[in-house]
UniProtKB/TrEMBL annotation:
Name of protein: Uncharacterized protein
Keywords attached to this entry: Membrane, Transmembrane, Transmembrane helix
Top-rank taxon: Bacteria
Transmembrane segments: 20-37, 43-64
Amino acid sequence: MSKTYAVPPASPLNHGKTPAAWVMTVGVVAGAIVAAVGFTFSILALLIVGIVVIVLTVILSAVLRVMGFGQKARRAEAAGR
């Protein structure tokens, strides 16, 4: 007797697979690497550049989310049901 298994339904959340999330991830990682190199070799200008890249990335990601390129808030999903 063979059993048939159904695939579970897809999650309603996309777990950050959005352009805003990718920009945030790549930008913060790149900024952290630049800042770490600056910190390691005592290059203050490089450290500051890395920190600025991280701050600008956070701002850019927030702007992208407001523009609709991010994951919707749970409140918005609940209101739409």
